[in-house]
Each structure stands twice: as structure tokens, then as C-alpha cells.
Amino acid sequence: MIGVFRVSDKLGRRLVLILKSYPCSWGKCIFCPFALEQSVDIKEIIKENTAVVEEALRELREEDVGRVAVFNGSSFHELPLDTVLKLRPLARGRVFEVEERSEYVTEDAVEGLAELMRPKELVIRVGFEVWDEGLREGYLRKGMPNSEVFRLAELRRRLKARGTPIKIYVYVLFGIEGIPEEKVVESVKAFKELFDGVIAIKYRKYLPNHPNEVNVSEELKEFLERNADLVDWGEGEEWEIGRESK
After folding, report:
1. What is the DSSP letter of 49?
2. How is the chain split into domains, by residue range?
3. Alpha-carbon gap, residue 150 to 193, rounded angstroms
4. Which of 22, 100, 200, 243 is deepest in the core (most CB within 10 A)?
């Protein structure tokens, strides 16, 4: 659902922008529905994103917040440059969150983005989903082997030592057929040791060929609420994929 939303949760009060993007360069993950909201029409993308950014600027004039998150169903680096430049007033001096595939997270890319956007802090979310490489690559088809996990952990260490205002959060997927709850617990614990935090995402099945949803035990719910920095249960209307904003 493309649009602007005010959110208040464990990460604090923030403004969330959901933008239209080019298709994901990878596009092979077995559970991802975001192709439903992507486009190859540059004019369409720019037009819709410009409207969302302008709405966000109006929202901030009415009530400012210190944290802005931008999601676009693929990587931030796959947004048109026109959209990225229009986002600068929203990012400057605030905590600014984006999503990236791991291959886009390089020293030059992170430092360049921090220089361009000038946020108080740059938060990059990466969807590794599960610690077990066999599940991540053989089942989910993420295209992010363990070498990428450890590369980003080391990159984060170097950038922080250099004074770059960056945090890296990792998505962990749960409630999906084929990933046992013990693997979810393992993932949260392992990723928290290497990165700044974990955001647990409740899986939702959007397309017939996607894996099935599975029930989540009370024990796992309690564990996630205690140990994840945020649990996204996907229950808000704003997260409906493939629907137009109001």
C-alpha cells in the first residue's frame, strides 16, 4: 500500500513512507509479494513517489518527528534518483531508516548515502530472515550466503569505528511453513550478537504459490516480544500489499 503513515511502537514515534520502486534486482525469494507494487514505468514511479514525499513533508510541518522510515518493496538503491533527492529534507537531522539487500551495503554506498542525506543516524534494515544458511539459501532463495552476513558485520564494525552514524538491523521471518520455531529463536540470538538489533516479521501469504502460514506458539510470541527490538505482526491496514493508499 503506497502512502504515508504515522507509527508508534518499540522503536518510537516515526513517519513511514511506502514508495513505488523498480522491480527488485534479485526477485527470487519464494515468499515476497512486493512485485505487486513495483513498476518499470519511470514516469509512474516518480509521479506516485513525489505525491507521497509531498504528503510526508506536510505531515512533518503539522507535527514533526525525529525518525523517518522509507520502504519500497526492494532496495533503497533501486529507487529513482529523482525520488532519492526529494527525500533529503525528510532525512536531514533525523534518524533515517531504509531497507537494502546485502549486496548494496558497501562502505562507499553507506558513506555516500550518509553524506547525501545527512541524517542524525542512518538505519539500514537487511532481510537475512533466518540464521541457518541452508534454509536461507536452499529454501527461501535469498541469495545472501553466510559470507554476506559476516561481511556486513565486519563492515558495520569498521564504519562505527570511523564514526559513521550507522546501525544495521536484521529481519527475522517467523510463522512461515518450513522454518521451525527453534530456528527462529536461534536466528534472533545469533543476529543480535553481530548487529544492532533484530526486527521479527510475521509472514503473510499473499499469492497462491507462496508457502503457507503456520500458527505461532505462545512461547515464541513471548520470546520475540522479550528479545526482538520490534515484532511486526503485519496486522495494520497500511501493510496490505497491492492496495492503493487513501
Report:
1. H
2. 3-170
3. 11
4. 200
